[in-house]
């Protein structure tokens, strides 16, 4: 048994870790953020309490039978007015988080993948939140995991004199290297919030009996190498030469790691990244498809805090300066040695983008 951050960490016979208090009790997210763990400050604790509440509501919505295609059809029976049609869950999730962040009083501006421009909430809110409210939502009908991705910055007080639209945009376009915290919530067989406050990556699992997120994966460390890659192999012939050579090499076991790699692809970014954090390897999309502000920066922050890397195929994601709110780029996340080997092939960014229809 070891002790970190004011809590003891016990290892079970299976090798799993869990955090416990001195009296053997479990550790919740709120407790971990407090003086016994990270001690991130009261304002960030308040913000996370509202974000936590919003994500629990989204988890319930995603799991509801009335949000499948059948449920939407059932709910629409007897009404032909467009106003009676259910909103897409992406929009509902966005509205839930926006309402929660507004009520927290701790957020100056929220920038979302679902909105064209940032939404200014409070002049004195100390934080800026960027997010993808429901990643992978088109997979819900097949009960494939979905997720919420978020990043948190400090408000740039030096911009307070600017007009609302301008300061909202500039606050939202901060470099990922300035993140105060980031995280994702995985909605799957379990609801898991994985987050970092700049001193390690930790995962908390929702206990439905109490409504608390419980620390179940403290100080996640991604392996230096994995044996799994996650990418849409059906696009192989659109890939550049370097990426094809890399994939051909590692799946034959002829790369720097002398084992044959396996492919595991869920087509849900949060789920593919979550598995990569736990088991190592790479999760990637070589196209200019994923958004720097909402997806690449928050997940790269988590990867680095777990000892991994986030790359655009050429260099570090967190070193990039966003120039547009919805800026897209290739994204490669995972084990540091795997990322470095991938980058060594030189030509791994897919420039041909046919605009696939699914």
What does it look like?
The protein is α+β, with helices and mostly antiparallel strands and 358 residues long. It contains 9 helices and 16 strands. The strands form 3 sheets. The protein has an 8-stranded mixed beta sheet with strand order 5-4-6-7-8-9-10-11, sandwiched between helices. A 5-stranded mixed beta sheet has the order 13-12-14-16-15, sandwiched between helices. Strands 1-2-3 form a 3-stranded antiparallel beta sheet, with no helix packed on it. It has 2 domains: 2-217, 2-Layer Sandwich (Fructose-1,6-Bisphosphatase, Chain A, domain 1), CATH 3.30.540.10; 228-343, D-Maltodextrin-Binding Protein, domain 2, CATH 3.40.190.80. It comes from Dorcoceras hygrometricum.
Share of helix, binned: 25-40%
* Span between termini: 49 Å
- Tell how many strands the DSSP assignment holds: 16
Low-confidence parts lasting 5 or more residues at pLDDT below 50?
1-5, 11-16, 73-80
CATH class designation of the largest domain: Alpha Beta
- Alpha-beta content class: alpha+beta
Mean pLDDT over the full residue set? 89
Can you tell me the CATH superfamily of the largest domain? Fructose-1,6-Bisphosphatase, subunit A, domain 1
Order of helices and strands: EEEHHHHEEEEHEEEEEHEHEHEEH
Radius of gyration: 21 Å
Q: Which shape, going by the Cα principal axes?
A: globular
Strands of the widest sheet, in order across it, are 5-4-6-7-8-9-10-11
Major sheet size, sense and barrel closure: 8 strands, mixed
> CATH fold name of the largest domain, please?
Fructose-1,6-Bisphosphatase, Chain A, domain 1
Counting DSSP H or I runs of 4 or more residues, the number of helices is 9
Number of domains: 2
């Amino acid at each position: 048994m070891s002790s970190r951050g004011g809590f003891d960490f016990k290892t079970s016979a299976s090798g799993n870790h869990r955090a416990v208090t001195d009296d053997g009790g479990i550790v919740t997210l709120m407790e971990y953020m407090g003086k016994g763990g990270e001690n991130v400050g009261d304002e960030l604790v308040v913000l996370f309490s509202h974000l936590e509440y919003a994500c629990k509501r989204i988890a319930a919505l995603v799991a509801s039978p009335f949000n499948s295609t059948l449920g939407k059809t059932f709910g629409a029976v007897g009404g032909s007015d467009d106003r009676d049609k259910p909103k897409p869950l992406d929009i509902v999730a966005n509205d839930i988080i926006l309402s929660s962040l507004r009520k927290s009083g701790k957020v100056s501006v929220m920038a979302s993948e679902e909105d064209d421009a940032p939404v200014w909430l409070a002049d004195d809110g100390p934080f800026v939140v960027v997010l993808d409210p429901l990643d992978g939502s088109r997979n819900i009908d097949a009960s494939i995991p979905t997720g919420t991705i978020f990043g948190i910055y400090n408000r740039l007080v030096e911009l307070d004199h600017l007009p609302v639209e301008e300061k909202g945009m500039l606050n939202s376009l901060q470099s990922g290297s300035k993140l105060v915290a980031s995280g994702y919530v995985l909605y799957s067989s379990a609801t898991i919030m994985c987050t970092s406050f700049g001193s390690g990556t930790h995962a908390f699992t929702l206990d439905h009996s109490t409504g608390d997120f419980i620390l179940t994966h403290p100080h996640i460390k991604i392996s230096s190498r994995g044996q799994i890659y996650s990418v849409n192999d059906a696009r192989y012939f659109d890939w550049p030469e370097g990426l094809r050579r890399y994939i051909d090499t590692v799946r034959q076991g002829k790369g720097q790691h002398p084992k044959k790699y396996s492919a595991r692809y869920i087509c849900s970014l949060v789920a593919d990244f979550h598995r990569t954090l736990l088991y190592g390897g790479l999760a990637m999309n070589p196209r200019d498809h994923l958004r720097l502000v909402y997806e690449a920066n928050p997940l790269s922050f988590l990867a680095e805090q777990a000892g991994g890397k986030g790359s655009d195929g050429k260099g570090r994601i967190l070193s990039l300066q966003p120039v547009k709110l919805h800026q897209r780029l290739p994204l490669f996340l995972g084990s540091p040695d795997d990322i470095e080997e991938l980058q060594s092939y030189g030509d791994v960014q897919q420039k041909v983008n046919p605009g696939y229809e699914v």
